[in-house]
Amino acid sequence: MRKIFFLFIFHLLRQFFQNSVYYSISILYHLYREFCIFFEEKAGDFMKRTLLTPLHFGVVLIGLFLLSGISSLLDYDTELVINVGAYGLRLWQTILDLFSPSSIIVIWGADDREYQMLDIFLSTYPYSFSILFISFFAAILISVILSYLMMLLPRNLYKLSVKVVNILDGLPDVFLVVLFQLFIVWLFKQTDILLFNIYTTGEERIYTLPVICLSFLPVVFLMKQFLFQLQEEESKPYVEFSFSKGFKKSYTIWFHVFRNVWIHFFLHLKPIFLLMLSNLLIIEVLFNIKGFMTVLLRTATSSAPAFFIGMLLISVPFFLVFTFGSWLLKKWLKGGEYNV
């Protein structure tokens, strides 16, 4: 351990003097990862929960803080250089500003007016995350219903619908949003009926089309996962036993097969939620929504403390929720084969 420690310090100092931040961060990451693996192998479940979870939480906070000043790290003077000094000053100024949140200013709007950070966050955060949560739960509900109905289709129709799902899964996010918008415009020109608003103006807020666009790809992704797991379960002996007892296919799939694939569904919730969170920025830009993600994008280069607090508002609640959910899932599995 002592040899590894001194080797780490040597590499860190050497890369610091060579002005290579990336390599130093890479060493820190691998050291932290090896420590977590070593600790998980040696410690018990209680020690893992009580020590590793706060450690992960602390690493998240430190990572977000270091990321908040990243815009000042790179500079251009005849060539691209890494400006460590300006980066350190930006982080120090961020620490000072965090002690007085009411004084943090955000430049926002088409006229680049200055607003207090808390006012902007309180007005945009509920709107953006209401769209996100509505889309999230709609995607779960729709994917479950469609997967169940597809399992009841005849074999030929089932194969055809699986091909359609695979094609839809390969479509880009931006393409789908623009396609929906063009369809609404075409329908309006043909019938003079405007189904949904496709663009916001002023303080107007729209929900329907952004929710549809944001939940479309998660529905397709969850359907693929559901159908794969359902097919795996359908070949198991308990399904044939249920059929031999005279239960219908619809009953067996819903009450027996679906119950055994819920664990796989929960394991995919985190990547689905992260996918929707990243797509939320695309939705806000394409629909001209004055939402939280566009504010966060603006503060990334204009206000490091506001950017840091904005990332905390995203990361910390969901870190706590998913950590608690993982703990509940582990209790349910009682130390089963899944790593959550």
From TrEMBL:
It is a multi-pass membrane protein. GO terms for biological process: transmembrane transport. Residues 140-324 form the ABC transmembrane type-1 domain. Pfam families: BPD_transp_1 (PF00528). It is found in: Cell membrane. InterPro entries: MetI-like, MetI-like_sf. It comes from the Bacteria. Keywords: Cell membrane, Membrane, Transmembrane, Transmembrane helix, Transport. GO terms for cellular component: plasma membrane. The chain crosses the membrane at residues 51-71, 91-110, 131-150, 170-188, 209-231, 306-329. This is ABC transmembrane type-1 domain-containing protein.
